[in-house]
């Protein structure tokens, strides 16, 4: 995945939305020197901001002040400006003349279209992955699903859901396709993860996951891909139902 990392995250302290881990020298969140050597300063800032946005630590509308970011990432404002331009090209940041940068928002229609893109990308990856799957892949996916079954905190379900899907797609051995899937999933997840989790619960989604995994074990690519498509379509339906029940307020909160 991007920069050799995986969305499999270790537990992190709860932080107020709109804040970033402190990356200044001497702080607990200081960047390791080896990380700085591997990546250029704009890359470090870009990746840190992207992760904070996808994790929900920086919500839509949050102002991104260059001097504050430069201080937190231990760099000058030049790499920060370059990182913000790159994130603007990804649709994550909006640059306003004379007003600086802010985390971008997105419409419900855009999210529904991104879910359509999920179907295209992920169904292709799964079809390519199944012939390459081995016992370890199935065992890891099953371990994730058992943890998902036992997890009571809805805010953690989205991460576990991603870990399961990622585990199934990695054997496709298509790095560019996997990168596109991760990016698209992140765009969707930052807006809909919690409200879909609350609306749909986890029982039916996890039944879907087990059925997909069983089809993968059996080597039945056609069945697995159809189950995956139906699974993502159900996410669309759950999102639209949540919006109807709240007259769009839940979506506005996530933004």
Terminal Cα span: 26 Å
How many beta-strand runs? 3
Rg on CA atoms, Å: 19 Å
The biggest beta sheet reads: 3 strands, antiparallel
Helix-strand category:
mainly alpha
Helical fraction: 55-70%
Strand content: under 5%
Gross morphology is globular
- Flag low-confidence runs: 1-17, 21-38, 250-255
Number of helices: 11
Estimate the mean pLDDT confidence: 80
Which H/E pattern describes the elements?
Answer: HHEHHEEHHHHHHH
The order of strands across the largest sheet is 1-3-2
Explained architecture:
- The protein is mainly α.
- The protein is built from eleven helices and three strands.
- The protein has a three-stranded antiparallel sheet.
- A hairpin with a 3-residue loop joins strand 2 and strand 3.
Explain the layout of strands and helices.
Layout: H1 33-38, H2 41-54, E1 63-64, H3 66-73, H4 77-89, E2 93-96, E3 100-103, H5 108-129, H6 135-150, H7 154-169, H8 175-200, H9 203-217, H10 221-246, H11 249-254
Helix pairs in contact: 2-4, 3-4, 5-8, 5-10, 6-7, 6-9, 7-8, 8-10, 9-10
What would a concise description of this structure say?
This protein has about 260 residues and is mainly α. The protein has eleven helices and three strands, in the order H-H-E-H-H-E-E-H-H-H-H-H-H-H.
């Amino acid at each position: 995945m991007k920069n050799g990392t995986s969305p499999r995250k270790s537990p992190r302290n709860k932080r107020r939305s709109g804040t970033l881990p402190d990356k200044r020298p001497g702080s607990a969140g200081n960047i390791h020197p080896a990380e700085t050597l591997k990546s250029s300063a704009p890359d470090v800032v870009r990746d840190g901001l992207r992760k904070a946005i996808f994790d929900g630590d920086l919500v839509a509308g949050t102002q991104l002040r260059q001097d504050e970011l430069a201080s937190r990432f231990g760099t000058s404002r030049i790499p920060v400006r370059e990182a913000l331009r790159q994130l603007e090209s990804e649709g994550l940041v909006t640059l306003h003349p004379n007003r600086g940068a802010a985390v971008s928002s997105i419409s419900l229609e855009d999210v529904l279209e991104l879910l359509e893109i999920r179907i295209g990308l992920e169904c292709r990856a799964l079809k390519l992955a199944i012939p390459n799957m081995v016992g370890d892949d199935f065992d890891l996916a099953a371990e994730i699903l058992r943890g998902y079954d036992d997890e009571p905190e809805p805010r953690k379900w989205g991460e576990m859901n991603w870990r399961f899907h990622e585990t199934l797609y990695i054997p496709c051995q298509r790095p560019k396709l996997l990168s596109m899937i991760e990016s698209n999933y992140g765009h969707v997840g930052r807006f809909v993860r919690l409200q879909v989790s609350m609306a749909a619960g986890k029982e039916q989604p996890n039944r879907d996951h087990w059925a997909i995994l069983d089809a993968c074990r059996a080597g039945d690519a056609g069945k697995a891909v159809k189950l995956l498509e139906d699974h993502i379509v159900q996410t669309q339906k759950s999102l639209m139902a949540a919006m109807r029940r709240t007259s769009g307020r839940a979506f506005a909160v996530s933004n």
